Structure formats: structure tokens, C-alpha cells
Amino acid sequence: MEIRFKDQSPERIKTDLLTIPVKERGLNEPIIRRLDRYLGGKLSERVKRRNFIGAEGSVLLHPTEGRLPAAHVLLLGMGKEHEIESHFWRRSGAQTRKEAAGIWAEEIAFFLPPTSDLARIAGPLTEGFLLASYQFNKYRSDNKRSFALRALTIVKSGLRANEAADRAVRIARNLTPGVFLARDLINEPPSMTTATYLAEQAKRHCRGPRISVEIWDKKKIQAMKLAGLLAVNRGSQEEPRFIIIRYRPVGRPKKKTALIGKGVTFDSGGLSLKTSKSMETMKLDMAGAAAIIGAMSVLPVLRLPIEVTGYIPSTDNLPSGSAQKPGDIIRYLNGKTVEVLNTDAEGRLILADALALAAREKPDCMVNLATLTGACMVALGTQVAGIFGNDRPLVDTLIRCGREAGEDLWELPLVKEYREDIKSSVADIKNIGSSHGGAITAALFLQEFVAQIPWAHLDIAGPAFAEKDILTCPKGGTGFGVLTLLNFLSSL
Ligand code: BES
Ligand code: MN
Ligand code: ZN
Questions:
Q1: Same domain, 386 and 346
Q2: What is the Cα–Cα distance from 484 to 408, expressed in whole angstroms?
Q3: Looking at the 3D structure of the chain, how many domains does it have?
Q4: Are residues 248 and 106 in the same domain?
Q5: CA–CA separation, 142 vs 426, rounded Å?
Q6: Sheet holding 59-63, edge to edge
């Protein structure tokens, strides 16, 4: 898709679809009245009939029937002015893309008011367009001719060459392939996405100068005593993998960051077996890993001046005669012992290895992403991830970076008193808490393995997977976390 900027008046633009953002109750703007005159009053007629007032998220599509060089006009409700922020433009891009697909409009013009801040809008707007264009069609036999946008023209009067806007578009173009990679990895069926496959994909996509991938097989994992990963893998026919992705900048790095991702390629629950219904989407359980592979795959083009190391413990979680059993005890690298009372709380078991390992390298901060608990989904729903951490500035920065990326993070507390809930009668701790506050006890469990390193844990169980089509993503893996991470790494 070509993306360009142009200074042209809307009534002259030859395009398949001309999008005009409209503020709530802002239908009196001169631009709308002018277009309405060209359209013989039919636009305002439709506006009235549909009771369109420009509420946020509402759209009105109007065919121009040859009265304008543009074949269709799309009015896009912006809501009240105070609600207008960067994510609005991301959603607008996505929404326009969706409407365009509906009428097979391959060329789109997006009109921006003369006073708008192009440099601030161009990035999220293009990002929305690009994100909404994702499809996962490789397993459909009817995917012959799918809709593809040819060009997006951002139109603004008095527009001059704008380096900041060009740069923002370039960045959006560089970032979205990372999101798509994460989505692809999640959407791929679970018998395909084994730990071995995930490792191969990491190797294949995290390639280039300054980036390298190291893969530990079962033997090496045994030698390194990653007891949690081995315990969860015991029920499986597939070998586990531990994936380490390293990005090093040219010159001395400004910061050293560790990213840790849960890579459970399929979570049946193990002997503490899930129900069929709750297993349906459990290929999503490597979404944390996917976000890290996706984000790190674009680091070579971003050329950030920091060192980033990704740690991904990966296995599936299956029951069998050799599977770990409730009542088993794991002894970890840092000396801690864990009683496994529920084999379905497997994520924390493998993350413990990775966190302990990462902490030994003494990074400036560690961020882990995991589809860790259904409880977090109960608390925050499917749009918002939970965030926990032991370092105020780190948590605040991540929340801000998430917000700018259109990925909402909401902080949940590491309630000290709940530490009692994970005490075990036979080992140091156990892998489940009481029946309440499951997202918190899971986070407290992880905290046992982070030493004193500034650390944040993102529980992405809700937003990792869209159970129905959403604006920026079709049903399936969303790639949640990729943009937040990249924003965050860019801010360091
Ligand atoms: N992978 C699941 C969490 C999950 C649930 C992610 C739903 C996405 C959607 C995790 O391994 C799990 O099974 N957690 C258990 C923990 C419990 C046994 C303490 C849960 O949330 O039920
Ligand atoms: Mn589980
Ligand atoms: Zn899981």
C-alpha cells in the first residue's frame, strides 16, 4: 500500500473513498456544507435520516453518484473533542479500512482539518490502516481474491513537506510486521506450533545485523537445570525449547533490558485437565512469546541504542503417563521449592526458570508477558491487560507506552498479605493460591524469582486473543504487547 500526503481541496480529489472526520455536533463545518452543495443536499438529507451527529465510532457512508470526483464520502464520528487522542486516529484508520473493504475501495483519501497536527496523527492513522488489513487465510480454500488497498492519501490544505509525519509513517510501517508476525504465530494451529517450531520461527524472523537467536534443546535445558520447564514438559511427546534472542546495538548500550514471554504452545491443563470449551482457544497460550518474537524481529530496522534480551521457555502442557502430578515438588535454580497442586497453573512454573535466569544477568529492568490467568480476564475483560510490578517508574512508563500504542494496561496490586495464600505445607511455596485474587497470587509467585531487579509482569490473558472481529484485528491472535514493547524500548 502506498501512503502519501497531498494538499488538495476535497471536492477535487479523485478517489474511491473520501473520509472526513466529523466532531460531535460539528456537521456545520464549512467543508461538510461545501460537499453537501456539490451533492445537491443529499448528504445532509442522509445525515438527518440516519440521525448522524458524529458520535465517536459512528460512520455514515454516502455514494456521490458522479457529483464529485470521489465515488463515496465517508463521515467518521469523532465524538467530543476532549476524547480525541492518538488512539482515536488509530481506530479511524482501522474503521476507514473496514468501510473501504465493504465497497471494495482500493484508493482512499483521508481528509484532515487544516488546523490538525499532521505529525501527531499520521503515525497512528497509518498504523490503524495497516493493522486492520491483517488476514490469516492460509488454511482457507476460498482465499483467491482478497481485498487489498492500493493507496492511502492523507489530504490537508496548506500541507507542506513534513519530515516528522514522513518519519511517523515510516515507523508505523516498520512496526506492524512485528504485530503480524505475532498474530501469525498465535493463529497457527497448535499441532503445527510446537516448541521446536516456535524456536525455528524465532530464528527465521529475528535475523540481521546485531540480532541473534540461541536455542536450547532438552539436553541443554536439563544441563541448565530449568526444572519448571522440564516438569511441565514431562507429559509431552514434544521436546521443550528455551529460546534466547539477543539484540545488541552498535557501541555501548544505554540500557540493558530483559523480555520474558510465556511460550506454552498448547495448554490442556495437564492432569488438572481443562474442559473442552476452555481448551478451544488454548493455542493462544504462547501469545506472550509471540509478542516478544514479533517485537524483537523489528529491532534491527529500529536501530535502538539499547541491549535487549528475550527469554522464552516453550513447551505444551499435556497429560500422559509421564506427566507431572498434583503433589509433585519442583526444585528451582535459585534454591526455591514449589509444590505443584494444579498442573494447569503451568505458566508460572516455566516463567520462574526464565525470570531467575534473566535476573542473573542483572539487566536494568525485566518485563514479562504471559497469558497467565483466567482471573485477570474476569477482572479486566478482553480489552485490558493487567500489569504488576515492583518499580513505580517502570510500571508508569509501560502504562503510558501502552496507552500511546492503543493497548490498555491497568495496574493490579501485589498485595503482600496474599503471599500467605501461596505458602505450602511441604515446600517453600505452591503454584496456586486461594479461590480469590488469582491474578494477584500468580504475580506474587513470579515475584519470588525476580530478585531485586526492577520488574513488570503483564497478564495478557484477555487481550491476547480476539474472540470476535475487532476494529484493528480479525478474530484470533491480536499481537497485543508488540506495540507497547516497541514503544517502551524506544522510550529508554
Ligand atoms: N493459560 C491459562 C490462562 C488463560 C485462561 C489464558 C483463559 C487465556 C484465557 C493458564 O495456564 C491457566 O490455566 N491458569 C489457571 C490458573 C489456576 C489453575 C490457578 C486459570 O486461570 O484457571
Ligand atoms: Mn494452564
Ligand atoms: Zn496456560
A1: yes
A2: 9
A3: 2
A4: no
A5: 57
A6: 2-6, 151-155, 107-111, 15-22, 70-77, 59-63
pLDDT, averaged across the chain: 95
Q: Residue 325's Cα: distance from chain center in Å?
A: 33
The boundaries of the domain holding residue 310 are 172-491
* Residue 392 is a catalytic residue: no
- 286 domain-assigned: yes
* Span from the CA of 224 to the centroid of ligand 1 (angstroms): 27
Domain closes at, from 107, 128, 158? 158
**Higher-scoring residue by pLDDT: 187, 160:** 187
Per-residue pLDDT at 85: 78
Q: What is the mean pLDDT of residues 334-344?
A: 96
Residues 6+ apart with CB under 8 A from 398: 367, 387, 389, 409, 456, 458, 484, 488
Q: Is the pLDDT of residue 442 over 80?
A: yes
Tell how far the Cα of 222 is from the centroid of ligand 2, in angstroms: 23
pLDDT at 37: 95
pLDDT tens by residue, 346-385:
999 999 999 999 999 999 999 999 999 999 999 999 999 9
348 is catalytic: yes
Whether residue 164 is contained in a domain is answered as no
The catalytic residue among 120, 274, 403, 419 is 274
Per the domain annotation, does 166 fall within a domain?
no
Instruction: Indicate whether this model's pTM tops 0.85.
Output: yes
How many of the other CB atoms lie within 10 Å of CB of 177?
Answer: 16
| pLDDT tens-digit series, residues 192-225 | 999 999 999 999 999 998 999 999 999 999 999 9
Probe residue for ligand 1, chosen from 344, 436, 478 as the CB with the greatest number of ligand atoms within 8 Å: 344
Pocket test for ligand 1, best of 266, 314, 372, 373 (most atoms within 8 A of CB): 373
What average pLDDT does this structure show over 443-452?
97
For the chain, give the percent of residues with pLDDT over 90. 89
Q: What is the CATH number of the domain that holds 421?
A: 3.40.630.10
Distance 396 CA to ligand 3 centre (A): 27
Write down the catalytic residue from 90, 156, 241, 348: 348
192/60 same-domain check: no
| Ligand 1 proximal residues by C-beta, below 6 Å | 267, 285, 342, 344-347, 371-375, 377, 432, 438, 461
- Is the pLDDT at 148 greater than 90? The verdict is no
Per the CB < 8 A criterion, the answer to whether 131 and 181 are in contact is no
Nearest CA to ligand 1 atom 22: 374
Separation of 323 CA from ligand 1 center, angstroms? 18
Question: Cα(217)–Cα(226) distance, rounded to whole angstroms?
Answer: 11
